[in-house]
Specification:
281 residues; alpha+beta; Copper Amine Oxidase, Chain A, domain 1; five-stranded antiparallel beta sheet; 42% strand; Copper amine oxidase-like N-terminal domain-containing protein; Cu_amine_oxidase-like_N; signal
Length: 281
């Protein structure tokens, strides 16, 4: 009798622990575990994730109007409404299995529908949602990682940024925000030169690396050393972009630099950044 009772308990426990669609414990995008202060949830055997996971790590632009959410990427647009299963995808109505909802000031949306609509592949493995996005191609080379390097007074930092959406977004800024081509500055360095008015300091180096660890494209951002009288700096642009691969120089903007830094900060906070070397004292 004791053996029968034990067997029944064990069967019940196994049945409870292995439903048709096991509870999701984490999300991986391009093999990176996404950091989030809010865990995914299961509703009607569908995985619901905070909207931030979509907007920051899949590269979708998000726009709110009242209770309607618009997600856009490339030529694809999705419109969803809180507490409503009807969704408009590229102008056509569809029905979701689970409606978006608000919980603890977080908006939850169905990850599979949105990810697949934006061209990503989704599969589940032992409680993990694995999402694979399209890699950035430069000169027909798939980009594996973006290596970002910057120096400070007493050392430097090298970090690798993963995630195809981050690669796409950063490369787009470099491509679209560069201004007119200009001549190379007479003096430019990795460090501050406080003895040379009109010299430039390298804010950061960005290497788009292939799977075999070769640099496919390198951009460097330089800023004007400014602790000089204003009359000595007239005519010097504040920010320059160096396409180191082609050895061409362009005007660049402070707004573009801020946009790049915001993406890097987002990658870091979401788990897509790894420090390779840190010699900062």
């Amino acid at each position: 009798m004791k053996k029968i009772f034990t067997g029944l308990c064990l069967t019940t426990m196994l049945w409870m622990a292995t439903p048709a669609d096991a509870a999701t414990t984490q999300i991986k995008i391009d093999d990176v575990v996404v950091k989030s202060d809010t865990a995914p949830e299961q509703k009607n055997n569908r995985t619901m994730v905070p909207l931030r996971v979509i907007s920051e790590n899949l590269g979708a632009q998000v726009h709110w109007q009242d209770s309607q959410i618009t997600l856009a990427m490339d030529q694809t647009t999705i419109k969803l409404n809180l507490n409503n299963r009807t969704v408009i995808k590229n102008g056509e109505k569809e029905q979701l299995d689970v409606q978006p909802y608000m919980k603890n000031n977080r908006t939850y949306v169905p990850i599979r529908f949105i990810a697949e609509t934006f061209g990503s592949q989704v599969h589940y493995n032992q409680g993990t949602v694995n999402i694979t996005t399209e890699p950035l191609l430069i000169e027909d080379e798939k980009i594996k990682v973006l290596r970002y390097e910057y120096h400070m007074t007493m050392g430097g930092v090298i970090q690798d940024i993963k995630g195809n959406a981050y690669h796409q977004a950063l490369f787009k800024i470099f491509q679209e925000k560069k201004g007119d081509k200009v001549e190379a500055p007479k003096e430019y360095y990795w460090h501050f030169n406080l003895e040379a008015p009109g010299s430039y300091y390298k804010l950061g180096q960005f290497d788009f690396m292939s799977h075999d660890q070769n640099s496919v494209k390198q951009y460097d951002i330089y800023t004007l050393n400014q602790p000089f009288p204003e009359e000595l700096l007239q005519g010097y642009p504040k920010v320059l972009l160096h396409d180191a691969t082609e050895d061409n120089w362009y005007l660049f903007s402070e707004q573009a630099v801020k946009a790049i830094q915001q993406l890097i900060n987002s990658a870091d906070s979401n788990g897509f950044s790894k420090i390779i070397s840190n010699t900062v004292a």
